[in-house]
Write a structure and sequence with these properties.
Keywords: Coiled coil, Flavoprotein, FMN. This protein has 10 helices and 5 strands; from the N terminus they run βαβααβααβαβαααα. By secondary structure, the protein is an alpha/beta fold.
């Protein structure tokens, strides 16, 4: 319910499944889909292995020209991500990190590090593992969200010993809250504020196409993508990083 007792506005969420087996991680996504449906939130599960996504060649044409020269479905997926109110990124833990399929797709979104397009999209992270690697995997997923302009909320993890434990509403409480509230009420971390300032320096110093994009979004004179409740310490720390980096990059 929203303030005043009204019904929550319907929201659309995209859940990216990067596990080929559609078993443990996929099962958590199915639970989330059913539970969020009861919260007036529609979840679409996208299976990365259903799409043709070629490995990035590092040619940087997408950075300099705006689009990739590879002929596959990566651009189609990037277009799809832009159309949702929230995002669920999921992966099994492989070698202490995200799955190779997800990494291949993330590499193809590299221009979003320079020109972020998922600004203010709340993101929920889901992972499963036999025993270890959860912390590093979540940190990688969080960094991906930062690079795209999204922000993290909750994280749901299961080890082999508790795979059968049902998803509890408490585990996605923050995600659901931020789906239904103005993004300006989100309080970005110091790490997020610093990440924004790093991206801004690169936009100002490296590529003209980046600077034009940031100017068009009116971000160059801001402390973050939009007005937020970031702490004073976070803002000052991030600004200091910006000033140091700006002087060092010619």
């Amino acid at each position: 319910m929203i303030a005043g007792g009204g019904k929550m506005e319907g929201k659309k969420v995209l859940a990216i499944n990067s596990s080929k087996r559609k078993k443990n991680t996929y099962g958590l996504l199915q639970q989330l889909k059913e539970q969020l449906k009861e919260k007036n939130t529609e979840v679409e599960i996208l299976n990365l292995f259903d799409y043709d996504i070629k490995e990035c060649t590092g040619c940087e044409i997408c950075l300099r020209k705006g689009s990739c020269i590879l002929q596959d479905q990566a651009e189609e997926l990037m277009d799809k991500l832009r159309g949702y109110d929230g995002l669920i990124l999921s992966t099994p833990v492989y070698m202490g990190n995200i799955s190779g399929k997800l990494k291949v797709f993330v590499d193809r979104t590299c221009r979003w590090f320079h020109r972020p397009e998922l600004i203010g999209v709340p993101t929920l992270f889901v992972t499963t593992t036999a025993a270890s690697g959860i912390k590093d995997t979540f940190r990688s997923l969080e960094t991906i969200g930062f690079q795209w302009g999204a922000f993290p909320t909750d994280s749901i993890a299961r080890k082999s010993k508790d795979l059968n434990r049902p998803v509890d509403e408490k585990e996605y409480k923050s995600f659901l809250k931020h789906l239904h509230m103005p993004r300006e009420k989100y309080r970005p971390s110091t790490r997020q504020m610093i990440h924004f300032q790093v991206q801004k320096v690169l936009a100002e110093k490296i590529l003209a196409i980046d600077k034009d994009y940031w100017e068009g979004q009116e971000w160059l004179d801001k402390n973050y993508f939009y007005d937020t409740k970031a702490s004073f310490i976070s803002r000052v720390t991030a600004l200091l990083v910006y000033k140091i980096l700006y002087k060092r990059i010619k």
